[in-house]
Amino acid sequence: MQADQFLFPTDAGLYCPAGDFFIDPVRPVPRALITHGHGDHARAGHKAVMATARTLDIMAIRYGADFTAQRQIADGPVRVGGVTVSFHPAGHVLGSAQIRLACDGGPVIVVSGDYCRTPNPVCQPWEPVACDVFVTEATFGLPVFRHPPPAAETARLLSSMAEFPGRKHLVGAYALGKAQRVIALLRQAGYDAPIHLHGAMQRLTDYHVAQGIPLGDLRPATTPKEIEGQVVIAPPSAFASPWVQRFRDPVIAFASGWMAVRARARQRGVELPLVISDHVDWPQLTQTLQDLRPEEVWVTHGAEDAVIRWCDLNQLRARPLRLVGYEEEEE
């Protein structure tokens, strides 16, 4: 069986007819395999969902316990129809996984979802998985994206707090993964003061703590007078709401790989852009393709053309899938 007969894009997402399932579908389907809990990959309404135990828990936190009629924990290789399926760490957020598909007499395909090779204190590290076809994202798939070490960006945040001790530092971060990573990075750097959380962060952060991830002294961001520490972490959407007006002359920061694009930082009114990404940058993406050397590379979303061109220059067969709806998590 040819790879593009075994797995192919549809309006709902990647579909595998041999197993009769979709991967990260963008609309409700009978059976979905989910790589991780971000809102652009994990949606409610599927009849049956297979994912890691942590991703299933995260989906229940975000969408309610009845987000699907049937849950199946991805625990070791399992047969789904005529396909052997296994989940492997992606290094993106807690519970994130690459999905390996092996069809009898067919190719081995690894769908990476979103992945990152930089060590992350709040999730398992990315694991290389040998395959015939590697399906990669290209969120930061341009040579200009070369993310600095997270510790260096954390040091910039600490330096700003030392320079402006009277100003609260409001850090924009996605509620799943990035918020907890910023907290963990601050703790690793020796910052042990209270860190305050916008209410939208609380349940997911509590779940990380319950999973054994130490995040230190965390408190709600209620009124500015009750905030003892300098750091308040909130979802990006909060900075366009009246919530931010509670704070007098704050330093507005935002933790994202997109902060490498200064125009984006200016558009958001960000004073302190922190280039902290949970995705592969250009060197990591191309190094992954060199390490795996699959027979073929498929590119799901992002800067597909640049990655395809790099593959052509490096004697790797490649094709774009032109999937839509995966660029950023829904807040």
UniProtKB/TrEMBL annotation:
<dbReference type="InterPro" id="IPR050698">
    <property type="entry name" value="MBL"/>
</dbReference>
<dbReference type="InterPro" id="IPR026360">
    <property type="entry name" value="Xnuc_lig_assoc"/>
</dbReference>
<protein>
    <submittedName>
        <fullName>DNA ligase-associated DEXH box helicase</fullName>
    </submittedName>
</protein>
<dbReference type="InterPro" id="IPR036866">
    <property type="entry name" value="RibonucZ/Hydroxyglut_hydro"/>
</dbReference>
<dbReference type="GO" id="GO:0016874">
    <property type="term" value="F:ligase activity"/>
</dbReference>
<dbReference type="GO" id="GO:0004521">
    <property type="term" value="F:RNA endonuclease activity"/>
</dbReference>
<keyword id="KW-0436">Ligase</keyword>
